[in-house]
Write a structure and sequence with these properties.
The complex is a heterodimer of chains A (about 325) and B (about 350).
Chain A: H1 3-19, H2 21-47, E1 50-51, E2 58-59, E3 62-66, E4 69-72, H3 77-84, H4 86-118, H5 122-133, H6 140-151, H7 156-163, H8 177-201, H9 205-213, H10 218-229, H11 231-246, H12 250-255, H13 263-273, H14 277-308
Antiparallel strand pairs in A: 1-2, 3-4
Helix pairs in contact in A: 2-14, 3-14, 4-8, 4-11, 8-11, 9-10, 13-14
Chain B: E1 6-15, E2 18-28, E3 33-37, H1 44-52, E4 59-64, E5 67-68, E6 79-82, H2 94-104, H3 109-122, H4 138-150, E7 156-160, H5 168-185, E8 188-193, H6 196-202, E9 205-210, E10 213-218, H7 220-225, H8 230-235, E11 240-250, E12 253-258, E13 263-268, E14 278-283, E15 289-290, E16 299-310, E17 314-320, E18 326-332, E19 347-352, E20 357-360
Parallel strand pairs in B: 3-8, 3-9, 6-7, 7-8
Antiparallel strand pairs in B: 1-2, 1-4, 4-5, 9-10, 11-12, 11-14, 12-13, 14-20, 15-19, 16-17, 16-19, 17-18
Helix pairs in contact in B: 2-3, 2-4, 3-4
The chains are: A mainly alpha (about 325), B alpha+beta (about 350).
Chain lengths: ~325, ~350
């Protein structure tokens, strides 16, 4: 028998299997199980263990004491510490605040950007979107370092401003919260612009004509048609900014000052400096809960309003 | 003379180097049901969009009630439009879709509610007020779009292929509903359509467009019976068109020689024609009848039935003459169902009267 033919046959069998609905549904679940659920369970386990001078630096939750005797010791101390020490709460609060303000800034800067790209002539859109994504072709770290060069006391920005006579003394931007915002907005803006652009570019233009025909001027058209229609893209973009900024570590570390306390940085300290894996894990879980909770609530209220729709029953 | 409600003068529209419309002059009177008829790409939609203000004409002016509105943006024009795609706002309920235009006019809330309810009752969509457009059927969406365009009580309603997306049965019902609505609300409707039957059924007057030019503006009856051009004759209804040479013109009776039919034709035509002029003779298929071999007829030809299209109420017969020329004629199927009146291959003598055909010069 021709071995090549055999290969072909087994391929057909495989692809037939992959095409069955059962196999299609298994892939996302398998991915989640392997790359999210399993590590997640590990993190839960570590967060409930006790820190120790050991390798790894914690005592396992499940230990076999003697033949047939297994001891399970759950330590909630790390969680208690998080709510006891104001350091953690203020780090969480600072992260939420930074993420909210950064997202708001991205919306303010990114919406007009996405809107103008989406409404430019069709042959301009692809190059313009390319320009928005172009910074991705350089390493993230290098771009943040470049901002240090721009923002520092005798950096590019201050030299230009002083050279033009706009300011007399150099601005103290580096190592402040402002520098953190600049770095975050610069780095995350493309993540906001892309999904929003995708939504705006698909917007049915005749809806605007219908609005105009019914007496809406350009501004009213925007606020009553374009903006509500772009909410899905806007939300997707805002999530893509808000979630990673919550746990952002590099930017506040490099551009921020001693007073920029964010959860990512605290986690890093706990993990690498204090070698307190349980507290770091507990912190990670609190952060995750904090991020998931709004989604769950949103879904819940969406479902409820769908169920309450009086016309569903008609 | 009273001022026309809508007047278009010397209009031309170019898209880059393509001319979409040229030499458009139109006047539409108040209370008319006016159709812009033509095949796709003839410029009828562009003309409607210029009336609505979505396109700027390259040349020419548009007047509404004697006022030049050419430069006016759509949101300041005293008219409303129903879009081919309906263009309902997907994020708004039926109520808010209909109320949209009234809210832009800053009308009091109580009056908005009252007027929306009134128009929705008229359009029989009162039960759908809280639904979103995606929860509606095609016919319901059309009613909502119509209600939204009517609620502002503008004098003029522009409709872009209003029945295009509906199935045949619903379309026929809606044709009469639109006419009734237009008469009841005493509005002026300007409808774009590619469907000649639709235009004929609904309109008080039809403008036939071809390749960016107006071929003819007339009542449906005159458009069919007295088409001005060959294109008009062939676009509206079935037609037999023959090229013929004028032999003589006597009072209003023209005698012509037709090579294609290999026969002499006589046609009633009032305008004087010069002998030897080449013109087109139009004979509508329903005006052609089967005559006895010895019967007197103004025009007659002999041929063999080559094809029959049975449409139920009527049948279209394609009759081939010895020289290969085909003549169409129709007959109402009024005889008992079991009897086949005419059969393939049957030899027939066809005749038609001099006043039942037209001479087309253009």
């Amino acid at each position: 028998m021709n071995p090549f033919r055999l290969g072909q046959n087994s391929w057909t069998a495989l692809s037939g299997l992959a095409k069955s609905p059962w196999m299609v549904a298994i892939w996302p679940w398998l991915f989640i199980a392997v790359f999210f659920l399993t590590p997640f369970l590990f993190v839960i386990k570590i967060s409930l263990s006790e820190a120790a001078f050991a390798q790894p630096p914690y005592l396992d939750v499940v230990r076999s004491v003697s033949d047939g005797l297994v001891e399970i010791k759950l330590n909630f101390g790390s969680y208690l510490l998080l709510f006891d020490d104001s350091l953690y709460l203020s780090a969480i609060w600072n992260s939420v605040k930074t993420a909210l303000i950064s997202t708001a800034l991205c919306i303010l800067i990114g919406y007009p950007l996405a809107y103008s790209i989406a409404s430019s002539p069709a042959h301009w859109r692809v190059p313009l979107i390319m320009f928005v994504m172009l910074p991705f072709w350089t390493s993230f770290l290098i771009r943040v370092y470049a901002w240090m060069g721009i923002l520092k006391t005798n950096g590019l920005l201050n030299n230009v401003l002083m050279g033009l006579g706009i300011v007399d003394a150099p601005l103290e931007i580096m190592h402040t919260q402002a520098a953190v915002y600049i770095g975050i907005v610069y780095s995350y803006l493309p993540f906001f612009v892309l999904p929003l652009y995708a939504t705006l570019v698909r917007l049915d233009h005749t809806l605007l004509e219908a609005a105009a025909d019914l007496g809406a001027g350009p501004l009213t058209q925007f606020f009553t048609v374009t903006l509500p229609q772009s909410v899905p893209g806007l939300m997707a973009g805002a999530m893509l900014v808000f979630i990673p900024v919550m746990g952002e570590f590099v930017i506040p570390d490099l551009l921020g000052g001693p007073d920029t306390l964010m959860i990512g940085k605290v986690m890093w300290t706990e993990f690498f400096s204090n070698k307190d894996w349980p507290v770091a894990s507990a912190l990670a879980l609190v952060l995750l809960t904090l991020l998931i909770l709004p989604f769950v609530l949103l879904r819940y209220f969406e479902r409820r309003s769908e169920l309450e729709d009086p016309n569903e029953a008609v | 003379m009273e001022t026309p409600l809508i007047e278009v003068r010397g209009l031309r529209k170019n898209f880059d180097d393509v001319t979409a419309l040229s030499n458009i002059d139109l006047s539409i009177k108040e209370g008319e049901f006016f159709s812009l008829l033509g095949s796709s790409g003839c410029g009828k939609s562009t003309l409607l969009r210029i009336l609505a203000g979505f396109e700027q004409p390259t040349e020419g002016r548009v007047f509404i009630q004697g006022k030049d509105v050419t430069e006016l943006p759509p949101y300041e024009r005293p008219l409303n439009m129903m879009f081919q795609s309906y263009a309902l706002f997907p994020h708004l309920s039926v109520f808010n879709n209909v109320a949209y235009g009234l809210k832009r006019d800053r009308i009091a809330k109580a009056e908005i509610n009252e007027r929306v309810e009134e128009i929705c009752q008229l359009m029989q969509i009162s039960k759908l007020m809280n639904r979103k457009p995606h929860q509606l059927s095609g016919g319901q969406r059309q009613r909502v779009a119509l209600a939204r365009a009517l609620v502002k009580r503008a004098k003029i309603l522009l409709l872009d292929e209003p029945l295009g997306a509906l199935d045949k049965k619903l379309r026929e019902d809606m044709q009469f509903e639109l006419v009734n609505l237009q008469e009841m609300l005493k509005m002026t409707f300007v409808v774009v359509t590619h469907d000649q039957e639709e235009a004929m059924t609904m309109s008080s007057r039809v403008a036939l467009l071809n390749d960016g030019l107006i071929e003819q503006v007339d009542t449906p009856r005159r458009l069919y019976e007295y088409p001005a051009t060959r294109y008009a004759a062939s676009f509206v209804g079935l037609s037999n068109l023959f090229e013929a040479r004028v032999v003589s013109h006597d009072d209003d009776l023209v005698t012509l020689w037709c090579d294609a039919l290999d026969a002499e034709l006589s046609v009633r035509h009032a305008q004087p024609l010069v002998p030897d002029m080449v013109v087109t003779v139009l004979v509508r298929p329903e005006k052609v009848s089967i005559t006895a071999p010895d019967a007197q007829a103004d025009n007659s030809v002999v041929g063999v039935i080559e094809n029959i299209a049975y449409l139920g109420d009527v049948s279209i017969y394609y009759c081939n003459l010895p020289n290969g020329q085909s003549v169409k004629f129709t007959q109402a199927n009024v005889q008992p169902a079991a009897e086949l009146p005419l059969d393939w291959g049957q030899k027939v003598r066809l005749g038609w009267r001099a006043e039942n055909c037209n001479v087309l010069v253009a």
